[in-house]
Amino acid sequence: MISPEKIKEALKRYWGYDAFRPKQEEIVRNILDGRDVCVVMPTGGGKSLCYQMPAVLQSAKTAIVVSPLIALMQDQAAQLAQMGIPAVVLNSSQSWNQQRETERRAEAGEFRFGWEKSRCRSLRLMKRTAFRNGATNSGPIIAK
């Protein structure tokens, strides 16, 4: 079990916040406790932190995020890399060789986060990695 102090320390160290937004801490704790969680928040509501923090705190495994938005994936992976957290994007903008090399490195446990656009490939990758958490960031799919 991860202490509340360690959670607050990570919030400040990696995201620069002194406090969570409404419901974020509850969501993070539920994920850390191994519960399935469905989070629906507006754009800018803090969903990313909810699935990123548990993986940051549980460093032995990889979190895989499925998202239809390549630019968002790239931005979030770059932001995590700036924070010192190894992250990678896997999508159709990469060559076949780049995709295979990324998958190989993910299987070797080199990343804490992987963003993927293809749900089918994500499921295969989850089976071959030390997979811890998964998230689907599909706001545009469920929006009116």
Q: Strand arrangement, largest sheet? A: 2-3-1-4
Fourth-level CATH superfamily: P-loop containing nucleotide triphosphate hydrolases
Radius of gyration: 15 Å
Mean pLDDT, all residues:
78
End-to-end separation in angstroms reads 39 Å
In the predicted model, the low-confidence regions spanning at least 5 consecutive residues are 138-144
Instruction: Write the CATH architecture name.
Output: 3-Layer(aba) Sandwich
Largest sheet: 4 strands, parallel
In short:
With 144 residues, the chain is of the alpha/beta class. The protein has helices at residues 4-15, 24-32, 47-57, 70-82, 96-107, 119-128, 139-142, and strands spanning 62-66, 87-90, 113-116, 131-136.
Could you please describe the fold and organization of this structure?
The structure is a single chain. With 144 residues, this protein is α/β, with parallel strands linked by helices. It has one domain (4-142): P-loop containing nucleotide triphosphate hydrolases (Rossmann fold, 3-Layer(aba) Sandwich), CATH 3.40.50.300. The protein contains seven helices and four strands, in the order H-H-H-E-H-E-H-E-H-E-H. It has helices at 4-15, 24-32, 47-57, 70-82, 96-107, 119-128, 139-142, and strands at 62-66, 87-90, 113-116, 131-136. The protein has a four-stranded parallel beta sheet, sandwiched between helices. Helix 5 (96-107) links the parallel strand 2 (87-90) and strand 3. Helix 2 (24-32) packs parallel to helix 3 (47-57). The relative contact order is 0.17.
